Amino acid sequence: MATLVSHPDEVKVVSRRFGQGATNIDRYLELDGYKAVQKALAMEPDAIVNEVKNSGLRGRGGAGFSTGMKWSFVPKQSAKPKYVLCNGDESEPGTCKDRLIFEQDPHSVIEGVMIGGLAVGARSGYIYVRGEYRYLSIIMQKAIRDAYAKGFLGKNIFGSGRDFDVYWHGGAGAYEVGEESALMESLEGKRGIPRIRPPFPAVVGLWGGPTVINNAETLASVPHIILGSAEWFAKLGAPKNGGTRLFCLSGNVAKPGVYELPMGYNLKKMIYEVGGGIPNGRRLKAVVPGGASCPCLTADEIDVNMDFDSVAKAGSMLGSGGVVVIDDAQCIVKFALRTMKFYQHESCGWCIPCREGTDWLKKTLLRVHSGGGVKKDIDNMQYLAENMLGRTFCPLGDAAAMPTIAFVKKFRREFEDHLEGRPCPYEKADVAEEVMA
Amino acid sequence: MKFSEEFETRFAEMVPHYPTKRSALVPTLLYAQDEIGFLSDEVIAELAGRLDLTELEVRNVISYYSMLTTKPRGKFNVQVCTNISCLVRGGEEILQHCAKKLGVGHKGTTPDGLFTLEEVECIGACSWAPAAQVNYDFHENLTAEKMDKVLDEYRQKVSH
Ligand SMILES: Cc1cc2nc3c(=O)[nH]c(=O)nc-3n(C[C@H](O)[C@H](O)[C@H](O)COP(=O)(O)O)c2cc1C
Ligand code: SF4
Ligand code: FES
């Protein structure tokens, strides 16, 4: 069980039932559970889509695309069955929020999948949970069984004459499988190699049928919108960024944890007030605002509102909600190296700029960090990363390149400080180079 | 090839959830591995047969997923995260500590077959870093002392 935290600035919507025993279906029902799906059953599909559109809900998986808009792309008529696919592969470094939702409120995800299904005319949904989250798979499978036992799933749900099935599916360790098209490949029992688009999943997805793919937090937000109204949800957040967000505060902060804050909450306030500031008398050096793939912000750049548009304006991304705080005892070159090591490991190898680019960047960063770099390496890394942008088959290549470019641009001095045999000025004495090799 | 009753029930339940048989492959492989310890030639042949795939197709899938292995491992797989949130809170020190204590490196297994050590990517415990998983159990907010206790507890599990 993960530890829950709280702060007076929190606005609990998705986390409303956390810590309240809502894994138990009867308790979930006491806490307004399965009311939203019953309300949705009485609505026209278009009305559901419009409600979600008007709520300003944007995808919590990373890209921040309008959920209602995504749902509206699914064709009304389809020869093949349509599906809803919940993305619970959560593997973006810095992100640990879907885990809490599955652990604390699994029925809200089931309900979100059902409402998504009613909106697009699907009659089954899959909830994909990453393989490492075995205890959550057990929780989720039980929740699904309990919902069937109550007659909420299966034939004639809530006496509506409609049928809806929800299934659990498990992964086996692969970050790339979180990418929507690779996710479908994985669910179909294959390697997680992305698919070419178009056609988009909304038109040709799982087993060829139109498929809506949404992050677990996105889907868990949906029942609250249906019950609470689009207007209410939109007002909780910032313009064009409805609702709240589970921010995963981690790294060098006094009070790390997953906090649900309104969209548009100020980052500086998040770090210093919610997170209790930087411990051990240290100072802030940088923040990765939305998971490992987002360009870092320096200590001078954190007066930014945490909504998709404001963070984009500040030159980074809100991403998956993972806010990683870095203090001045950390080495940025090392941090950049660890980030690249991750992308190199997770690259599926399908396309050359990503497969070779991540490998080359990792090797160069390793050399620079160990003191064997030359001045030209710094420019080469930037050149190489910039040339990966937009030239890869799926966005993983960009995800690897973007943070590198920011680290090199914003902390060039630190890279230079490592050159020509100088030892890392930040290296902790007992951690040898071999760990990174 | 014999699996437990639990495996068979799960397998029988899972396959009809999908329009194609092979869709059950990835979770099935993991459950089989949990039972047998690794994906042996025999397991691969059995599952290929059941899901109408060639063994090569199954191997092709296995090699993609980091949790799947065709080689035997220790009884307890100690997976230490050193990714960014853990890195800045001492994840590497935890890894090194385990390496010293167990006397093995990345993917090494202790001679008694009890522990395998693995450096892993983010396991979704970033706000409770540094973190590790032993098999499927999470251990969070680790220190070297806490890690020692965790390892000792697993060691004791087998001696009783
Ligand atoms: C390499 C890569 C990994 C991704 N991993 C995840 C993930 O673990 N979970 C997730 O919800 N979305 C992930 N995404 C985003 C998905 O492709 C997709 O956009 C998202 O699930 C859509 O849901 P949303 O609109 O609700 O955000 C990833 C994308 C890429 C390119
Ligand atoms: S960008 Fe990387 S992960 Fe994506 S298809 Fe190319 S090699 Fe695979
Ligand atoms: S970075 Fe270690 S658990 Fe996420």
Name the structural class of chain A.
Answer: alpha/beta
| Dominant shape of chain A | globular
Strand content of chain A: 5-15%
Largest beta-sheet details of chain B: 4 strands, mixed
Shape of chain B: elongated
The poorly predicted ranges of chain B are none
User: Quick check: average pLDDT of chain A?
Assistant: 96
Radius of gyration of chain A (Å): 22 Å
Report the order of strands and helices of chain A.
Answer: HHHHEHHEHEHEHHEEEHEEEHEHHHHH
Beta percentage of chain B is: 5-15%
Q: What topology, given as strand order, has the largest sheet of chain A?
A: 6-5-11-8-9
Unreliable segments of 5+ consecutive residues of chain A: 429-437
Helix content of chain A: 40-55%
Biggest interface, residues from each chain: A-B, 63 and 45 residues
So what's the oligomer here? heterodimer
* Distance N to C terminus of chain A: 33 Å
Number of strands of chain A: 11
Element string of chain B (H = helix, E = strand) = HHHHEHHEEEH
Kindly state the percentage of residues in helix of chain B. Answer: 40-55%
- Give the rounded overall mean pLDDT of chain B: 97
State the helix count of chain A: 17
Walkthrough of the structure:
Chain A is an alpha/beta fold. Chain A is 40% helix and 12% strand. Chain A has a five-stranded mixed beta sheet with strand order 6-5-11-8-9, covered by helices on one side. A four-stranded parallel beta sheet of chain A has the order 3-2-1-4, with helices on both faces. Chain A has a two-stranded antiparallel sheet with strand order 7-10. Chain B is of the alpha+beta class and 160 residues long. Helices cover 45% and strands 11% of the residues of chain B. Chain B contains seven helices and four strands, in the order H-H-H-H-E-H-H-E-E-E-H. Chain B has a four-stranded mixed beta sheet with strand order 2-1-3-4, with helices on one face. In chain B, strand 3 and strand 4 form a beta hairpin. In chain B, helix 3 (41-50) packs across helix 4. Chain B is elongated. Chain B starts with a helix and ends with a helix. The mean pLDDT of chain B is 97. At the A-B interface, strand 3, strand 5, strand 11 and helix 13 of A face helix 2, helix 5 and helix 6 of B. Bound molecules: flavin mononucleotide, iron/sulfur cluster and FE2/S2 (inorganic) cluster. Iron/sulfur cluster (SF4) is lined by residues 176, 194, 347-351, 354-355, 392-394, 396-397 of chain A. Residues 176, 194, 347-351, 354-355, 392-394, 396-397 of chain A line the site of iron/sulfur cluster.
